[in-house]
């Protein structure tokens, strides 16, 4: 049976909010192919194309996609089967006032390097150096609990998480805040390192094969996204500072560990300091994103 295709041409958003109109309603458990455009809407095609400022509308997220039966308090599981690059080039760039080293006088702001995709689709080329293509979905999230939030900003609903683990072979779990959940995604990268230091990865259009499932009455409620990579469970949190983000991610991990092992919160806290660890997703967006990882041998999700 062919998958339904939902394209950015069908609809896309630049904000996640509490009231979102779906472009498609998926059945619980339905598998879809979701087509995205690059984060800059195809505006950057050559090294001479420079970004003088971050656009007001950036990170177009295909959707929203309503999922039948999803209600506040549920969890939406997004099982990512494949992420395929869908154009012959990516682009990595700087922009004034953006990025980890935005004030470094020795670094050009703006600057652009086109990263051509090789004929077999296995690598991108950066200044003659081949880099493996490992596609990442940069922006992915659901309708918010209240505030309307730009697709440039990550928060409890997901959004611009820029997390390398959001890729093929992983399942991302989101708290559901509104009826239908209202999933949207975009801002993919052909390659991106943890931290996303310059403010971008190799921005590129992709096709995503994903299965969307509703988990009703989860044994552990979620406040923020969780990623299961198969090798590890990782709680994701975004906040104004890295210290705040890692504290939130660790707190969410304590809830999962306490439930799985019957630990007190104290024992969960002590155990979290023995296994896994803290990881940085990105440090360049209006809020930074961190994750707390625990190997799967020490943690089974309760849903």
Name some characteristics of this structure.
single chain, 303 residues, mainly beta, Jelly Rolls, nine-stranded mixed beta sheet, seven-stranded mixed beta sheet, 2 helices, 22 strands, FmdA_AmdA
What are the SSEs and their pairings?
Elements: E1 4-7, E2 12-13, E3 15-16, E4 24-26, E5 30-35, E6 61-67, E7 75-85, E8 89-94, E9 111-117, E10 123-126, E11 129-132, E12 136-141, E13 149-150, E14 154-155, E15 158-159, E16 171-175, E17 183-189, E18 206-215, E19 226-228, E20 232-239, H1 242-261, H2 265-272, E21 277-282, E22 288-295
Parallel strand pairs: 1-5, 4-6
Antiparallel strand pairs: 2-6, 3-13, 5-18, 6-17, 7-16, 7-18, 8-9, 9-10, 10-11, 12-15, 12-17, 14-15, 16-19, 19-20, 20-22, 21-22
Helix pairs in contact: 1-2
Walk me through this protein's architecture.
By secondary structure, the protein is mostly beta strands. Helix 1 crosses helix 2. The mean pLDDT is 97. It has a nine-stranded mixed β-sheet with strand order 1-5-18-7-16-19-20-22-21. Strands 2, 4, 6, 12, 14, 15 and 17 form a seven-stranded mixed β-sheet that branches. A four-stranded antiparallel β-sheet has the order 8-9-10-11, with no helix packed on it. It has helices spanning 242-261, 265-272, and strands at residues 4-7, 12-13, 15-16, 24-26, 30-35, 61-67, 75-85, 89-94, 111-117, 123-126, 129-132, 136-141, 149-150, 154-155, 158-159, 171-175, 183-189, 206-215, 226-228, 232-239, 277-282, 288-295. The radius of gyration is 19 Å and the shape is globular. It has two helices and 22 strands.
């Amino acid at each position: 049976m062919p998958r339904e295709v939902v394209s950015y041409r069908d609809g896309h958003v630049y904000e996640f909010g509490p009231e979102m109109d779906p472009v498609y309603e998926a059945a619980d458990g339905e598998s879809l192919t979701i087509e995205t455009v690059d984060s800059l809407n195809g505006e950057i095609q050559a090294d001479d194309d420079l970004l003088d400022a971050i656009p007001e509308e950036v990170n177009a997220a295909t959707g929203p996609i309503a999922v039948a039966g999803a209600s506040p308090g549920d969890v939406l599981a997004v099982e990512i089967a494949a992420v395929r690059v869908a154009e012959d080039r990516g682009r990595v760039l700087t922009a004034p006032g953006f990025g980890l080293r935005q004030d470094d006088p020795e670094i050009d702001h703006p600057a652009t390097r086109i990263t051509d995709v090789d004929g077999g689709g296995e690598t991108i080329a950066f200044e003659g150096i081949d880099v493996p293509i490992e596609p990442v979905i940069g922006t992915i999230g659901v309708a918010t609990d209240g505030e309307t939030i730009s697709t440039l900003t990550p928060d409890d609903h997901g959004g611009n998480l820029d997390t390398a683990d959001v890729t093929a072979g992983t399942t991302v779990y989101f708290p559901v805040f509104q009826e239908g959940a209202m999933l949207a995604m975009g801002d993919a990268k052909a390659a991106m390192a943890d931290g996303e230091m310059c403010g971008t990865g190799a921005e590129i259009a992709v096709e995503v094969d994903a299965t969307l499932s509703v988990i009703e009455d989860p044994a552990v409620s979620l406040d923020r996204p969780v990623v299961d990579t198969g090798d590890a469970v990782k709680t994701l949190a975004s906040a104004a500072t890295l210290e705040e983000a890692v504290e939130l991610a660790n707190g969410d991990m304590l809830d999962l560990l306490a439930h799985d092992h019957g630990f007190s919160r104290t024992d969960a806290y002590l155990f979290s300091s023995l296994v896994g660890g803290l990881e940085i997703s990105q440090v360049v967006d209006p809020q930074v994103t961190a994750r707390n990882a625990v190997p799967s041998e020490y943690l089974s999700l309760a849903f």
